[in-house]
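User: Design a sequence. Structure:
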């Protein structure tokens, strides 16, 4: 274990989180009628959690349950009616007890069998307005096997990846994105209905432009953070990526103020009403932007890199964002969810990844099919086997 890692572990044991200034960890997770779990309670001691077991044992279900204690639809992007356990009551619930060393908070999310399409969110003993309220208290980043083709898939997946990283820094980013999407849908509906009320359309377009410019500005700020945090010291293990944004608003913000870009966007939306009505969608805006990644050392677009290089680039981006959060000393704790993270890494890269994660100090949950994949963690991690609808802690 490196000297920095030893210092971080000693600080966490003493009640201080080196990444955020306070020890904030999920200490207990309770899952009821969720996916493959009837009911299970899992106690975590603050160390990284390594969960192993064969395919279908329910490893990813635990990560998904944790991810739902945050904005959005979790690591799988599942619909609410996909979450209840088969043969269960029809409802489901996930709750987490979070301890920061001085105070304890409880976060819960679920749906009742009587109204399965409505998500119920609670913070301590009070109802929360929605999953977005969790972002003030917990922030998440994750990598899943579905993201391995991120650089080969459509731009939408890359936007969501960038927005998830941005949300870890700025909890308001989710609300701005939702406001933009809602205004865009409302405008399209008005266009399709042939609305002729220019004042009404103009008001909706102003809302769309204000939120859109803010979304684009937040994404630009995120790429700047990554550029600073993607230092070259780990390039031999997880290569750094130079990233940029391909989008009209994002590019315009490089030369103009956010207010000027917003006003130009309003004019463009008004001038494109007929085209957007015919197309059935808005043809310009941050919802069409793309994230461009280039392997820094090789100067090669990520989409042209090998599968292994693409995976390493993805891990490098996640680590860069975690490093940026550590340097920023962000208030809300970051939780990393890494599904099948070690499957395609050789032993040296696995060991290097674990050491980097340990030094960053964020709470991490990892899954893998074999216990041996996590041997390099040793006693630095808490190990669990997924079987029989529960997690069973094992000795290292």
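Assistant: Done.
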């Amino acid at each position: 274990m490196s000297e920095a890692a030893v210092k971080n572990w000693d600080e966490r044991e003493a009640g201080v989180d080196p990444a955020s200034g306070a020890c904030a960890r999920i200490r207990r997770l309770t899952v009821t009628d969720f996916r493959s779990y009837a009911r299970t309670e899992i106690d975590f001691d603050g160390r990284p959690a390594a969960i192993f077991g064969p395919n279908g044992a329910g490893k990813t279900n635990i990560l998904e349950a944790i991810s739902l204690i945050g904005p959005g639809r979790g690591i799988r992007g599942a619909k609410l009616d996909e979450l209840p356990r088969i043969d269960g009551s029809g409802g489901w619930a996930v709750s987490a007890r979070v301890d920061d060393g001085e105070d304890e908070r409880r976060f819960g999310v679920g749906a009742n069998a009587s109204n399965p399409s409505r998500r119920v969110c609670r913070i301590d003993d009070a109802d929360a307005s929605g999953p977005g309220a969790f972002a003030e208290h917990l922030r998440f980043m994750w990598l899943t096997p579905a993201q391995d083709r991120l650089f080969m898939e459509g731009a939408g997946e890359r936007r969501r990846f960038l927005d998830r990283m941005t949300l870890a820094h700025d909890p308001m980013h989710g609300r701005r994105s939702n406001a933009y999407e809602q205004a865009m849908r409302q405008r399209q509906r008005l266009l399709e209905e042939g609305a002729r009320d220019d004042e009404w359309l103009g008001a909706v377009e102003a809302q769309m432009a204000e939120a859109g410019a803010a979304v684009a500005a937040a994404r630009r700020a995120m790429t700047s953070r990554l550029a600073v945090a993607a230092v070259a010291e780990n390039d031999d293990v997880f290569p750094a990526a130079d990233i940029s944004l391909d989008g009209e608003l994002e590019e315009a913000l490089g030369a103009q103020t956010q207010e000027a870009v917003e006003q130009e966007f309003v004019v463009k939306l008004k001038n494109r009403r007929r085209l957007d009505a015919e197309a059935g969608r808005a043809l310009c805006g941050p919802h069409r932007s793309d994230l461009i990644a280039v392997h820094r050392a090789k100067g090669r677009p990520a989409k042209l890199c090998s599968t292994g290089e693409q995976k390493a680039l993805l891990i490098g981006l996640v680590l860069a964002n975690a490093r940026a959060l550590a340097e920023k000393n962000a208030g809300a704790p970051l939780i990393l969810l890494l599904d099948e993270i070690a499957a395609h890494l050789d032993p040296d890269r696995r060991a290097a990844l674990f050491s980097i994660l340990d030094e960053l100090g964020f709470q991490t949950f990892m899954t893998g099919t074999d216990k041996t994949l996590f041997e390099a963690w040793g006693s630095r991690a808490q190990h669990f086997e997924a079987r029989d609808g529960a997690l069973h802690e094992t000795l290292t």
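The chain has ten helices and 15 strands. Residues 198-229 form the longest helix (32 residues).
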